[in-house]
Write a structure and sequence with these properties.
By secondary structure, this protein is an all-alpha fold. Helices cover about 70% and strands about 0% of the residues. It is flat and about 80 Å long.
């Protein structure tokens, strides 16, 4: 540990030799690996790469990979890049994985070259690393691999989409690719539009809802949408004439997921509006119920009033009561808020709901 803090790279080779000595415990080996990760340097990187590629001990392997990912030293990336080009396949694959974990963007051109010319294991490792390193501008090239290395390629594309700092650029790349791809490839690309979000992506997905080959995937993508731009689309689709019960349920559940996502830009008043509209559009009691927790978490006076009204509906009373209790816990303020809480809690106590719910409401009322 002292040597690790010293920054003395000359001891890396000596420490690394202990990793190959069967006389040392795994505990000591793990300590040495951690120290080498702290020291860094090309010698230490070589030891870690060899260990990660050759050991059958999963704990040691993961420790060596983790050490490679964080090792300091500008020369390490260059040494790993060189290690991807010749020698043992497993060591080459480990070097590629390490470059991805280290965020070595300068490796991207070489990795693309490996995908196009390397053996299968190297192609797959390179695609995995490109998922961590490639940018939105690389998406057209990644899409071109879908027909050959489909599973790895789509995982890499999805990873790039999740990391996209400029989603609009990524959306344009995916849309451009879809114009020239087969239905089977576009089926894989559709979920990427859901990851990226935005008006252009949403419009494309909506346009494919009636497509014979892609309709089901488009519906699945839409109902998992998290961006606020999808709110009006959910309402429009759920209220469309001729929509089937199954599709309406899927759309309404997608709307609930959208309303529950606190990371999107949807305003509280819009969440309330969409929730109330969703309740109106739902044909099944089960579909109405799923909106009530949304109203409870909103906790606004309008949402609370809706819940109090729904206490009179015997099919929705229990869920409305539970949501109302959640809303009461979110109400802030003193005198005016206190009166609102009392009114709501008394309404829950009077409602025909489970005894446990009434007991909880009474306890909350007593504590006011």
């Amino acid at each position: 540990a002292v040597l690790g803090e010293s920054g003395d790279l000359t001891v890396a080779a000596q420490l690394g030799d202990t990793l190959a000595d069967g006389g040392y415990s795994d505990e000591l080996r793990l300590t040495v690996i951690a120290v080498l990760g702290q020291l860094g340097g090309v010698d230490a990187a070589g030891k870690m790469l060899d260990l990660a590629g050759r050991t059958e001990d999963e704990e040691l392997k993961k420790a060596a990979q983790a050490a490679l990912a964080v090792m300091p030293g500008g020369a390490i990336d260059a040494s790993l890049l060189a290690a991807t080009k010749t020698g043992d396949i497993q060591l080459r694959a480990e070097a590629i994985g390490a470059l991805g974990s280290r965020g070595s963007s300068e490796a991207v051109p070489v990795l693309f070259d490996h995908v196009e010319k390397g053996p299968k294991a190297i192609r797959q490792a390179s695609l995995n690393a490109l998922g961590e390193l490639a940018t939105s501008g690389d998406l057209p090239r990644l899409v071109s691999y879908l027909n050959g290395d489909g599973n790895q390629a789509i995982r890499a594309i999805m990873s790039v989409c999740r990391r996209a700092t400029a989603p609009d650029i990524a959306v344009r790349a995916i849309l451009a690719a879809m114009d020239s791809q087969s239905a089977s490839v576009n089926e894989k690309l559709l979920p990427c539009l859901g990851i990226l979000g935005g008006e252009a992506a949403l419009k494309k997905v909506e346009s494919l809802l009636e497509d014979e080959a892609l309709g089901k995937t488009a519906m699945k993508t839409l109902t998992g949408w998290s961006g606020s731009e999808a709110g009006p689309s959910f309402i429009k689709l759920a209220s469309a004439e001729g929509i089937g019960d199954v599709d309406r349920t899927l759309i309404l559940r997608g709307l609930v997921r959208l309303l529950e996502n606190r990371d999107n830009a949807l305003k509280s008043e819009d969440r309330l509006k969409f929730a109330l509209r969703g309740i109106d559009l739902a044909k099944r009691v089960e579909d109405k119920r799923i909106f009530l927790p949304v109203l409870g978490r909103l906790g606004t006076p309008e949402a609370i009033q809706t819940l109090v009204t729904l206490l009179e509906d015997e099919d929705l009373a229990e869920e409305a009561a539970l949501a109302a209790l959640t809303a009461v816990e979110r109400v802030r303020g003193r005198r005016r808020a206190g009166r609102l809480k009392q009114r709501v809690l008394k309404a829950v106590i009077r409602a025909e709901v489970e005894a446990d719910t009434v007991e909880k409401a009474q306890k909350m009322l007593d504590e006011l």
